[in-house]
Write the structure tokens for this entry.
Amino acid sequence: MPLSVADTLPEAFKEWSFTEEIVDHEEAIETCYLCGQENIRYHFKIKNQYTNHKLWVGSHCILRFDVAVFDDGQQLSVEDAKKKLDKLTEKMQLDSCIRALQRLAKAEDNVILTSALEYYQKNKKLTPKFAFVVFWRLSENGVAHNPSFFKINLRKKKYRKDLAEMPASRVRYFWSALTTSQRQIALDLGHSPPPNI
Ligand SMILES: [Zn+2]
């Protein structure tokens, strides 16, 4: 409100729009400057069209307060705004996985790791065999990463077969990267989650 022209809240929010600027702070250490929510990892910048004030906020506040989100000059519905912000977040998560894989490939002279990086850049997923080596080496090298951002490819029959034949101890390395339905597939194949999950 103090940064807006209008004197009622709903009117004030109409003055604001998303600027398309986003920042990944790598860890959930930031604050939403609209509602004060802490432990935010991603910041989205909004701007007041009259006062030119800018604020870094969480995507939740853009949606909650109906801050305008545009695409090709068109203001999006709340539903489409959510889709767009989700897509931007997903892109930041993909980029963060690629950065982790790049750091790992640099840390070790290992052809499997450079192939895994290339595969991820192309397919945005890891095969189960790559996943085991990548997660094992990420933790051995202390490379910061969020396992749940990684995606595993189980679509092909070959990858489900690889998963079936893999020792259970290896599957546990990338358990947290599996989706709920992929975990079910792993359980059906006789695998089990690591003790801390
Ligand atoms: Zn907020």
User: Anything to note?
Assistant: Residues 78-107 form the longest helix (30 residues).
